[in-house]
Amino acid sequence: MCGLTGAFAFTEAGAVALERLQMASDALQHRGADASGMFVQDQVGIAHKRLSVIAPTADADQPFTDSQGRFTVVLNGEIFNYQKLRTDLQAKGVEFRTASDTEVVLQLYKREGQDFLKKLRGFFALAIYDSRDKSLFLARDRFGEKPLLYYKDGDKFLFGSELAALLELGVPRELDYTSLYQYLQLTYVPAPASMLKGVKKLLPGHSLFVKDGKVHSSMWYRLPFDPDKAAHNRLPYKQQQAKLYQLLEQAVSDRLTADVPVGAFLSGGIDSSIVVALAAQQVDKLQTFSVGFPGHPYFDETKYAQLVARKYNTSHTEVLLTSNDLYDGLYGMLDSMSEPFADSSALAVYSLSKQVGQKLKAVLSGDGADELFAGYNKHLAEYKVITENTGASAIKRMKFLWDVLPKSRNSFTSNKVRQLQRFAEGAGLAPHNRYWFWATWQKEDEALMLLNPENRSAAASRLYIARKSRLLDCLDKKPYDLNSVLCADWNLVLANDMLPKIDLMGMSNGLEVRSPFLDHRLVKFAFSLPSSSKIDGAKRKRILLDTFKDVLPVELQKRQKQGFEVPLRSFLISEGSELLSELLADDFVKEQGIFDVHQVQKIRKSILSGNSAAAYTTVWSLIIFQYWWKRHMT
């Protein structure tokens, strides 16, 4: 787990970026404080920051060059099957100088070329320079667990683990209004776009080959989703369960591969609890960590985490956060974001990672299970629409009531009203529009109105519809059912929200987060299952609960799904009010010229009224963007 960056100069003008390589590397210091290295040869420069998890010895530091001096590699991530791959290569006569997975990656590329990626089990972003061929090869893992951004013009090709590195290398600081428009709806910018024009995120499962001033993009992995085959899967349910147990158990075992201790996040939910149950069978006194909000019982899940910790005798730590604690971590979190990212739960993940990172370098998590097995409220809502549930019809007819009742995410009752109102509004839409409505926090016209009138045309045009349809192409496959929605979530929500959140917040504190549910063998199997195995009536994650019911405390099996959230309204009107007043002040908004000052005023006032659930997220998105703008764009 590390940070990488580099530049490939095509002209003398492009070579200026090589002089800035050290600054770009320094911008990634938080991603790896154990070692630092640079490689500069002719027109290419590559830099690396290392967090040592596998082979934590100096001979495995990066950039790593082969014994012939031809190939040089930098790797961010871990290859869990590297020992088997190493044994296979040794049987073919390959000699190794280190015990690292990085050298295995380099030797595979030397022997097999770009096809070697399909042999890797793990998560990674990598770059390999061939000094003889004068070429650069870059690749990203199957699902986008590790980030990689790049920029190309006529003079140079630049890349890095975070936008901060590319900013130091000199990319143009020009705002992409279409990306801003999507950010205001989603709270993040989906790949391949970034908040800056010209800077792209390499898509999951894709690679780049740079040579002679040209960049060739390839897809080396595609999510194996065939809705027709899944719908007609005839594997008996008991056998499905047996296969799921075997695959997840193996995935947990693989992700314990390390030369340092590995712990686990334990939220109190089903997913992380299953992971802890399986890991605790292999690790004595597994270190587990949960976060709680003692002043806000609705957001506090620590009592459920305690049940699992006691059942499996883990060495458990609770990180209990007040609004003051959130504020103490706020600027550290904000400074860790070189692109706006407004999922508010990132603040809690940052605070948790800060505490855990002082004890460990790697932890397991339960990320990905909701997208595989239908764990979100919107999945149950979609199921009710598809099956024409009679209760769904009643909720739609009562939309007039949900529209007028108070809605927020701060209590069970007001949050339930919020959910009913969103269901009633979305249920009558066509599948694409319904999905987009339930995936976003703000409607398209509301997001557009936040922008200054002169900026709205730039945001609403330029392939917006085409970009959105690429993200949602799973919904076009036939037959359409709940698996189609899960596939769309995998491409949009998981890859662009959940995984960047975990990577950014973990790596800001020198912590690597590994999720067994992202094992590509498990993912392939999950997407081969019919939707009936995942949801049945009101029971979400059906097969997950049925398969692992014996390892979970009964209380967890009966509890309602609760997202990992923070008490955002309470924070915004207390400790966070200072940021709100500073970054959304009329004078600053007017001078900046991006947003409509009158619309921002209305949003600010709605926070104080407490009646608009969406307003908290909108204000948070604006605050995150404004802080980023002041830090990186002015």
From TrEMBL:
Q: Name one GO molecular function term.
A: asparagine synthase (glutamine-hydrolyzing) activity
Is ATP-binding among this UniProt entry's keywords? yes
Reaction(s) the record says it catalyses: L-aspartate + L-glutamine + ATP + H2O = L-asparagine + L-glutamate + AMP + diphosphate + H(+)
What keywords are annotated for this sequence in UniProt? ATP-binding, Glutamine amidotransferase, Ligase, Membrane, Nucleotide-binding, Transmembrane, Transmembrane helix
Task: Give its E.C. classification number.
Answer: 6.3.5.4
Q: Which family does it belong to?
A: Belongs to the asparagine synthetase family.
* Protein's name according to its UniProt entry: asparagine synthase (glutamine-hydrolyzing)
Source organism of the structure: Pontibacter locisalis
Mind giving the lineage of the organism this protein is from?
A: Bacteria, Pseudomonadati, Bacteroidota, Cytophagia, Cytophagales
